[in-house]
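BUG-479 | component: ligand-complex export | severity: low

The export step for magnesium ion jobs runs without errors, but we want the raw record kept on the ticket for reference. Input record follows.
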Amino acid sequence: MARFVDRVVIHAAAGNGGNGCASVHREKFKPLGGPDGGNGGNGGDVILVVDSQVHTLLDFHFRPHAAATNGKAGAGANRDGANGGDLELRVPDGTVVLTEDGEFIADLVGEGTRLIAAAGGRGGLGNASLASKARKAPGFALLGEPGETRDLVLELKSVADVGLLGFPSAGKSSLISVLSAAKPKIADYPFTTLVPNLGVITAGETIFTMADVPGLIPGASEGKGLGLDFLRHIERCAVLAHVVDCATFEEGRDPLSDIDALEAELAQYTPSLGGELADRPRVVILNKIDVPDARELAEIVKPEIEARGLRVYEISTASREGLRELTYALGEVVREYRAAQPVKEATRIVLRPTAVDDAGFTVIEDPQVEGGFIVRGERPERWIRQTEFSNDEAVGYLADRLSRLGVEDQLVKMGAIPGCQVTIGDLVFDWEPTTPAGIAMTMTGRGTDPRLERNERIGASERKIAKKARRVPGTYDEE
Ligand SMILES: Nc1nc2c(ncn2[C@@H]2O[C@H](COP(=O)(O)OP(=O)(O)OP(=O)(O)O)[C@@H](O)[C@H]2O)c(=O)[nH]1
Ligand SMILES: [Mg+2]
């Protein structure tokens, strides 16, 4: 059976956007028929999708790299590049997504819940789309944006329906091996099991999973033995089953004190996912009754344990006595537990949180460069990525865009002088006002900016967004 992996790091790489195409339509006797470069396709997303048929993160353990396909470049004759295909990764219900630093991103609950783990890059516009009255035949196109790459931690909130608790050599691995198809290592020395095993058990209509975990000893909550690691697994099981060795001759051990010792450890442990371990339903499995002394002992302690309100089952994994009854009883407890859970609602679509400053930007003084500035913002940074810097026309277009957004005005307002160093994203450059009258231009109203009239590529709505961003206090406006 599957080894059980409850925590993996995945490397998600979304597809890059395809580059836009700069092309000029050509026909016989009509050599310059206007721009006809198509747009690049968008890169594919890497998406996590909850699938109730998936129970472990094992696949990701073996294949941690996930990449969506790139968008295709645009071509002449107005042919747009194809979009890259999304890559859907199927994850178990109850997968918790964290950043590598342990910051919580999402809790994926309910069949079909989706999370964009890494967003594909946008395709670049071709020169046909960039054409305007003022720029009838642009000799450039926009570059496709690189897709996001993110390292994410996936953790299983629930690893199994039933978790086995017990001292080393109590017979936990033996039990899972006779109840399910799991074939864990079994031996008569302590700590045979080092990593948990997962078994799938059928009890009539009910199918449930059981986790065999490493043995527990007193002091585990402080890290003794395999300690905390083990408790982290137990925390993710709905039902806890004590497996008690009734045939041990070890000094100071008997079924009751074994149970008490392990309960004391559980009580010491603070579950990292919240929720109390004390609230989990419990059963007690008295094992090894094929040994005569053990059977006798089991008979003696059974009523005492039952008096604590626990269900007790006497079994032997060696002679297979009592297994059928145990299987159905566990199925019953699991069914009860499931029925008591609130109905899980599919969160349906959890989208990647969008950047708050999508429409705006901020300018700060560069702490490292005297007289320098850093411009931050989703859009200006994206525009930089879309620009092919070896093409002067493309650079001019970028400068227009930045100035229209108000970046230039803001730099002036903050005391930028021509020639100072400005950083936007990956780009560092010596700033020069776009027009010789750049500084004076801040005195004119926005509506009278001659560059605005010249350009119809930016839609009214886009301009409105930019304007609105200017009004939001704190976005960047220092007034
Ligand atoms: N006589 C008898 N021996 C058993 C029974 N169940 C398990 N054993 C023996 O007990 C020893 C330990 O069994 P395991 O299943 O490895 O015990 P475990 O609880 O998984 O132990 P750790 O992984 O070390 O925590 C082995 O030698 C088994 O053969 C049983 O019902 N009767
Ligand atoms: Mg074991």
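Assignee comment: Attached the raw record above. The chain has three domains: 7-157, 160-340, 362-471.
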